[in-house]
Design goal:
- By secondary structure, the protein is mostly beta strands.
- The protein is built from 2 helices and 16 strands.
- Strand 8 and strand 9 form a beta hairpin.
- The chain is elongated, with a radius of gyration of 28 Å.
């Protein structure tokens, strides 16, 4: 996929302190031409402050024993110093897990994706519907793939998958399920109308997502935060009653 095909869904580089913001600053700075860089960076367990290892600002030489990482051994502290005027080293962040150095994919990022709604399917396909007779509802969901750029810097693959379906039947009745249902002859998901009049079936789908980042050496799929929702409205129909008539 070419850069012009990548949707930028998160901009800005103002971040709070943390393992990832520190690593992000390093990546952005080192991606600049040498003449535009502001800092020199180094990852080391050695203390680089002028006071040496006895300085109170120094991190421990070894990672805390309580630190358990998923993606590999802990990463040494990150130091930086200004390139101008013979700047001194400052601790940017201490020991980190490798997974903490990758950008998170937030619920706000997830909701910026243009997820196509799952369409309402029902049988009978066309109205009118008969009162007291079951109407079959079902969906035909598929996972959707996206290629996006976070913060104008990170290229990310995202896959969103339907997680839950909520059917609203237009008469006050609702049905929530993780099952998309199936068409006739299955009767997995049904609804019976008990009042005459007009109705419309609406389907609200909750989606979850996983993502992987190009800067991740493991290219590991990770769970995105939160959910995104789509809504599809079916066509309006009549709910009627069939009455038999005796004829001579």
């Amino acid at each position: 996929m070419q850069p012009s095909d990548v949707e930028v869904i998160g901009k800005g580089d103002t971040l709070a302190a943390g393992a990832f913001p520190a690593e992000h600053d390093r990546r952005v700075d080192e991606a600049r031409p040498p003449s535009k860089r502001q800092y020199e960076y180094e990852r080391t367990a050695d203390c680089l402050v002028p006071g040496g290892a006895e300085d109170d600002n120094c991190p421990p030489t070894f990672p805390p024993s309580s630190m358990v990482c998923e993606d590999g051994p802990p990463v040494p502290p990150l130091w930086r110093r200004p390139l101008e005027n013979g700047g001194v080293w400052h601790l940017r962040w201490g020991w980190s897990c490798p997974e903490e150095l990758q950008p998170p994919f937030s619920e706000a990022d997830l909701r910026k994706l243009k997820v196509k709604a799952v369409e309402v399917q029902h049988q009978p396909v066309d109205g009118p519907m008969l009162i007291t007779k079951p109407v079959i509802v079902y969906a035909e969901p598929t996972a959707q793939e996206f290629r996006v750029r976070l913060m104008d810097f990170y290229d990310v693959d995202v896959v969103v998958t339907p997680r839950e379906y909520t059917w609203e039947f237009g008469d006050g009745g609702t049905l929530t399920t993780a099952d998309p249902g199936r068409p006739y002859p299955a009767f997995d998901l049904t609804h019976v109308y008990e009042s005459l009049g007009k109705a419309r079936i609406t389907l609200r789908t909750a989606w979850s997502a996983k993502y992987r980042v190009d800067t991740d050496p493991l290219r590991r799929w990770r769970d995105a935060e939160g959910s995104v929702f789509t809504v599809d409205e079916g066509e309006e129909f009549e709910v009627i009653e069939l009455r038999s008539t005796l004829v001579d």
